[in-house]
Amino acid sequence: xxxxxxxxxxxxxxxxxxxxxxxxxxxxxxxxxxxxxxxxxxxxxxxxxxxxxxxxxxxxxxxxxxxxxxxxxxxxxxxxxxxxxxxxxxxxxxxxxxxxxxxxxxxxxxxxxxxxxxxxxxxxxxxxxxxxxxxxxxxxxxxxxxxxxxxxxxxxxxxxxxxxxxxxxxxxxxxxxxxxxxxxxxxxxxxxxxxxxxxxxxxxxxx
Length: 207
Ligand code: GDP
Ligand code: MG
What we know:
Helices cover 35% and strands 21% of the residues. It has 207 residues and is α/β, with parallel strands linked by helices.
């Protein structure tokens, strides 16, 4: 399918500390693979998937960053490009959980009205190394105002369901915004013509 035939094209960024499993979550969901060895992401890791939401042809591009999370600072460009964000910590790392507020601030400061889609506690298979309880994750998600899930990129638990849910939320929130901000009923498709990308997976879409 050509991108010009899409009803909606959205970009979701995965935000979280280094080594929480962002790249593996994407690889599990979109390629069905998992890497035991830690390969710091080089360049931008970007994959996409098509959905049919309520009869609309939707494509979502997911991306995570070029190892910049090591320095706790992301390029403004990466954040500006995102229409929505999934925040990720590892249930085995309290430090990564404590960093979630930082990532939210980053998105607020550098994002382009980007939507908060979901909070994920990854590495749920490592129960014996757990440092953050399910309840704490849920409480944080309530504070932020988004759904919460625990996932495992290793076993695949909740990976597809959480990515699909976050993608649907982005689609629905964007469609609500468009309907609210427009005086022309049903102008959702028209508005989103502007959002269609011309370049490769992570190419800059002019908004
Ligand atoms: P990123 O820096 O956030 O992109 O993290 P990676 O996806 O590169 O993963 C960092 C390390 O954690 C790698 O060694 C992965 O094998 C491991 N990892 C990622 N997700 C999981 C998971 O769900 N369970 C377990 N046991 N290990 C994971
Ligand atoms: Mg990575």
